[in-house]
Amino acid sequence: MMQGHIDRYLDRLRAGIDGLPRDRLNQLGEILFRAYRNDKQVFVIGNGGSSSTASHMAADLAKNTIGPNMRRFRIVSLSENAAIVTALANDLGYENVFSEQLTSLVGAGDVLIAVSASGNSPNILNAMRHARTRSAEVVGLFGFDGGQALALSDLAIVVPSSDYGVVEDIHLVINHILVDFFRDQLAADKPWTV
User: Fold this and answer.
1) Contact at 8 Å (CB) between 105 and 43?
2) For all residues of the chain together, what is the average pLDDT?
């Protein structure tokens, strides 16, 4: 009984991976490399499991791209500070927990990565709108049909699945593809030393 479930889940996971738009993954790498090269800030946001993915992405890109005398990748997850998230949620509403943080942080040329399976969370949408008013590049990692966030993205990577588990798994795969690329590329080229 379990074997059939395992096979079906892995088949759905494989189909989602096979359906990833490789050209858009390449564009995401270019956007992040440009942010690194220009010493811009990258912000990552998400709710629930996607919040964990946002934290994982920020940790991986910050830590695994460190090399001797290399400038650091400037990336942070806005889900990390429980005190500010809960204070903003309490006083201004949960739909504003990310946009309010961005108010004092985001600037032109910075990058916002919104991670959301549905693409319809109000706090994600508000943050994306706010980042756009500040001339930041807005990237989305979504599932399903991309939701309302699709129209707010400069670049959207939509996992072709309507299964939350598969979408969240593949968002982590995307993270690890990026980390693998940047770790190797920056270590080999050492393009900008401090």
Assistant:
1) yes
2) 94
Which conformational region is residue 129 in: left (phi greater than 0), alpha (psi within -120 to 50 degrees), or beta? alpha
- Sign of the dihedral through C-alpha 161, 163, 166, 167: positive
pLDDT tens readout for residues 5-35:
999 999 999 999 999 999 999 999 999 999 9
Half-sphere exposure (Cβ direction) of 122: Cα atoms closer than 13 Å? 6
Distance, in Å, from the CA atom of 73 to the CA atom of 89, rounded to the nearest integer, reads 29
DSSP 86-107: HHHHHHH-GGGTTHHHHHTT--
> Taking CA 91 as the corner, what is the angle to CA 88 and CA 95, rounded to the nearest 5 degrees?
55
Domains of the chain: 2-189 (3.40.50.10490)
